[in-house]
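Hi Y.,

Following your request, here is the sequence exactly as I used it, all 483 residues.
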Amino acid sequence: MIRRFDRAKHHRSSLWALVTLAAMPPALLALCGPAFAHASERGHVLLLPTQYYVLGGALAVAASFLVLIFLPPQALARLGTRRMRIAVLPFDGRATVSFFSFLIFAALIYAGVSGSRDPLANPLPLTVWTLLWVGLTLMQGLFGNLWAWLNPWYGPWRFFVRLGGPEKGWFRLPKALGYRPAVLLLFCFAWFELIYIAPDDPQHLAAAALAYWLFTFAGMCMFGHPSWASRMEFLSVCVGMISRLSVLEARCTERGFSLSTCLPGGKLTDTRPLPLSGVAFLLLALASVSFDGFMRTFFWLGAIGINPLEFPGRSSVVTENTMGLAGTFLVLGAAFTLATWAGDRLAGGQNWNRAAGLLVWSIVPIALAYHFSHYLTALLVDGQYALAAASDPFFRGWNLFGTAMAHVQAGIVLGAHSAWVIWNAQAAAIIGGHVLAVVIAHTIAYRLYGSGRRAALSQLPMAVLMIGYTVFGLWLLSTPTAG
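Below is the corresponding structure, written out as tokens. Let me know if you'd prefer a different format.
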């Protein structure tokens, strides 16, 4: 079953577009003109056949118990620590790359103000929602923390330091804050991308993106780049956590940057425990992506009294979806708390905070797998629009790269063969992500409790939770959606 592609619907919400929203939601609502549909809706929805999520749930059950019973945690722990050096870079080019990224950001802001009002022809929404939020997030999970080089703040901040600004800033962020500011900003971001009625209007997006850039840059100047980026700038926190899943690792040494390879998720098995605010951040990241799919299902629309075949528009469900987003986060948080608390009791542990702070890292492969599955079709289609818009960014009839008149092949996700490939890729990602999460959780539990038996006992409730989430994620890809 395939839902038609709506040209006014684009992809995913912005990276920089949320502090303005956090500070002045009423002002943003007042600015709204035409209510563009949100870009995160999938361009084509290829509904996964029911047997895929039934089979996926069964495989997840089998794989989980195989990991817990037959795979020795000592061997898994040793594999997670193995590294193979592949290169040493004798220089740090982050400032140069970041400054170039800032120049591109400035051009995108200008394009948002002066270019086309069509979200599928303007490079600003296409870049930040398709290439950045979807594409870069996936790249982070594969190749490491590319955002440390590509963010548009580090280069200008280094220039500020060279002009005489204090490298560590004039003030210190209170340690007691933890990740609370990033949690708040992430929730505002999720609200903006999922619930706000016009998140992809180029002019509104340009104003919000510029406001967030200025807010973040001012914070980095006052408190120092490392401190602000690690706890306040939610995107740096989010993609930094996701990058720990990657197969590449870069470490700063006396000789330069040392690049090594490791197993997927190997860097997650030796991390420090997150504080409770960090646990909340990762759970909110997963909950927001899950609710993005859930809020479009016939089940949710029926529950809030909306006929799925006569969807009245985003503005009519702002309150219901806001409550749904918060409720999804609270339900997931309660389920994770119960699973880790019960596991800690079964293993005879006495420090639930530490257990939760370590085991929450196993959420990362699940979040990335669902991110891939949920936005795969939109990336395939909207990526083509981004390529075309890059040749004429300011809507002046240019053809800089020879792609301005390129025909967008929406049929890339249509047809029996394409559907079969996409279905299998989505199902494999969901199942594989959850199995990897079980392996990582088991390895972390062994490190936490010190014995294979106690680790296995502690993971029984977590295995149940992950199996349930596997079925839920595959069901979201198989159920009809609207809105």
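Residues 2-476 form one domain.

Thanks again,
Q.
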